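In the design runs reported in the main text, the only information available to the sequence generator was the tokenized backbone. The following block is the verbatim input for one such run; it is reproduced so that readers can re-run the procedure and compare outputs position by position.
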């Protein structure tokens, strides 16, 4: 920033936030389309320049951000509402989530910008979007032979879910994360051992859509860093073991209008489902169900994702992952579960999902259903068929779905004359290349099956 300029209101505000929190350095953070967290470490002495002008990145070096080496810098513009002190990671450190811009305009390939556009579309339709997220993950380590095993040597039970002893053995890690979340005001309310050996979940209260997406990214960062300090690997890989339950990213979605809940209805005569749901809630469910196959490319975006949704069983006896787009009441076998009349739970997403894109996709699909007053059908039903069997099938469904592709292109309209490719086309090609890179790999399964078979 020009030293002759006076600090802006934003600069003064960020300086005050840093002073109050004792912050010495800021992580200027954003994610690419794959969900990779990218950041620069900004000293508090540069806070005026950061708040006023942002901080620059070579976009092609970032990863999946729709840039080539010749392109102008991505400028990460801080969202001061996301200021998050994390002294439990490093004393004096804070995170600020940023919106990538290029040449002064929001960059259309930036996931946070896409979600902000969908939140605005919801507002234009008269709604505020609220989201809760269940972050599941495994705590692993490498043994003497390099094999990935649960970090807890005693975590070997066939059905370890909710085991009090396993939770107690991981007390130090779970408690540190819980304390961190509560210091940040997130409202951690439960921490448990999940269905796979080494698998855990730590819950926090729902919030506005953008806030929850930021918190998922922050929590993944905290889990990874704090686990590493204890010699563990925190992984959000959907299916690290073929015979164990995979990790989901279940999203709890609700709408308000003018602050009043939209989903519940009190008059039983207006609710043929018996679940206390309004017509708007049912239409929102219908929209998600109708776009489920395309949505899977966004909420289950890796090759490994389809080892989870295609699993028939696990060591515990259940995969807990939906295989077809159906809906029901408080029933965890469905793609959409209705735990109560205030919200719906979308269970198709997994730990590899980019939370900005996952929430944006769910909003786009649900709002399309509301716009058309779509009918979800009877409880337990759906539009028919199964969810995509592989990432390639999901990509093909995405390319054929105008609602989900429009969601990915939600910011592209701000660049009408730039000749930029469709974000949806770019994302689909990115995922298609990922599938064929995996397909080209010769695995031990193939050696075992074919080496002497002929």
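Verbatim output:
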């Amino acid at each position: 920033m020009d030293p002759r300029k006076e600090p802006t209101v934003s600069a003064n505000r960020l300086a005050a936030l840093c002073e109050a929190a004792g912050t010495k350095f800021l992580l200027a953070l954003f994610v690419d389309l794959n969900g990779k967290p990218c950041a620069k470490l900004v000293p508090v002495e540069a806070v005026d320049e950061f708040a006023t002008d942002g901080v620059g990145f070579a976009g092609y070096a970032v990863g999946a951000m729709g840039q080539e080496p010749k392109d102008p810098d991505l400028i990460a513009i801080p969202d001061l509402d996301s200021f998050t002190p994390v002294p439990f990671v490093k004393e004096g450190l804070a995170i600020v989530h940023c919106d990538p811009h290029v040449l002064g305009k929001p960059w259309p390939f930036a996931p946070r910008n896409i979600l902000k556009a969908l939140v605005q579309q919801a507002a234009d339709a008269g709604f505020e979007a609220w989201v809760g997220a269940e972050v599941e993950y495994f705590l692993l380590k490498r043994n003497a032979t390099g094999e990935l095993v649960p970090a807890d040597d005693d975590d070997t039970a066939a059905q370890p879910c909710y085991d009090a002893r396993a939770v107690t053995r991981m007390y130090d890690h779970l408690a540190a994360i819980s304390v961190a979340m509560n210091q940040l005001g997130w409202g951690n309310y439960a921490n448990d051992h999940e269905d796979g050996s080494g698998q855990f979940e730590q819950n926090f209260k729902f919030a506005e859509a953008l806030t929850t997406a930021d918190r998922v990214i922050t929590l993944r960062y905290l889990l990874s860093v704090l686990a590493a300090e204890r010699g563990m690997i925190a992984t959000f890989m959907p299916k690290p073991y073929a015979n164990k339950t995979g990790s989901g990213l279940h999203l709890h979605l609700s709408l308000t209008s003018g602050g009043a809940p939209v989903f519940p209805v009190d008059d039983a005569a207006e609710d043929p489902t018996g679940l206390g749901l309004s017509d708007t809630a049912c239409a929102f469910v219908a929209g998600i169900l109708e776009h489920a196959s395309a949505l899977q490319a966004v909420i289950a975006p890796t090759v490994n994702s389809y080892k989870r949704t295609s699993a028939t069983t696990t060591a515990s006896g259940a995969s807990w992952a939906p295989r077809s787009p159906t809906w029901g009441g408080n029933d965890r076998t469905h793609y959409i579960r209705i735990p109560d009349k205030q919200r719906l739970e979308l269970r198709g997403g997994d730990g590899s999902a980019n939370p900005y894109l996952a929430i944006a996709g769910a909003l786009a699909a649900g709002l399309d259903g509301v716009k058309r007053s779509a009918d979800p059908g009877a409880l337990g039903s759906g539009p028919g068929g199964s969810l995509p069997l592989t990432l390639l099938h999901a990509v093909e469904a995405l390319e054929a779905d105008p609602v989900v592709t429009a969601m990915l292109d939600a910011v592209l309209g701000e660049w009408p004359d730039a000749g930029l490719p469709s974000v949806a086309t770019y994302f689909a090609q990115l995922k298609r290349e990922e599938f064929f890179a995996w397909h080209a790999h010769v695995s031990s399964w193939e050696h075992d099956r074919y080496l002497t078979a002929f």
